[in-house]
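Hi U.,

Before I forget, here's the chain from the pilot set. I'm dumping it here mostly so it's searchable later in email.
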Amino acid sequence: MPHGEMTLREVDLDRDLTVAVDLVARSQQQAMGWVDMTSGFVVATMSGPEAVPSEFRLGVVGAEPVGLLLVEQDLPAREVFVDAFAAGDDAMHRLAQLVDAGLGAARRIAGPDHARAEAGIDPYVPGDALWQVSALHHPGDGRYLEVLTGLEFRPVRRFWRMSLDLVGWDREPSALPSGVTVRSAIDNADLRLVYAVEQASFADHFGSWMKPDFETWMTEISSRPGHDPDRWWIAALDGDPVGICLLDNSRAEQGEDHVRRIGVLPQARGRGIARWLLERAAHEAAARGQSALTLSVDGENSTGATRLYESVGFATRHVVDMWLRPLYLPAAASDDSR
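Structure:
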């Protein structure tokens, strides 16, 4: 890999997409020994509704690409998400330069709306009261850990990436719980029903302060890699919709199926509905020749979801941490250089 000072230039989405996919893979392989973000995830991140392409940066030494900065925004939540990737011997120095550039991008996005650090608000608690910058960190990536710590980010949440091995899987779904029926979502009315159940199911979960309307939610979820509404299921108890299971093809490059979302309304929990939905998802994934079924879960989930997943056979593959810092640090709220 080349040595020397890295310069940043704007990303050309047409010309640099392949370069970006390669950089992400090289960066994660170097840092962790494996690659988490598929090419589909990279493309979705760079083209989704929350992407800010004008703030993407490609780091080069001479003509050689060595770093990548991706920036996303959630304006109602006053949040900017930065994702930095770097490869080579000087990767940690390059990551620090990229994340710092991401903070500059966040200041431009926030504009004059930074005077929201109201008294009594902990700036490191996620919420929409003031502008915050977030980043994801895999615990195996020690260099990124040092960069985020040095720039005064703090870890605020841990998520578990879980996987169910389907090699040799021959289990049929158990009988449907009494009074429960399951059908596919087939039209716009069903999509709105899925949205309503999803929002109610996760009302007490991390991130519940974000309440998108249906159109915003649909735009966001449709931009995810592997989006496949033909495999969205609605569970009803005595005719009333109480649960959903949304599958997608985002892990197809690895020969896996993915559960994007699974939720059951509080009043219908404990009846085996979520278990049946997972068993059916596993059965169908195995029939499709997939090697595993994957999902993610909040490490502090209070509904017992993690125990349910483990009882079905899911095991933790790895974890990922969300790190956060206020855009303007409390001691320097008016210092744009911070």
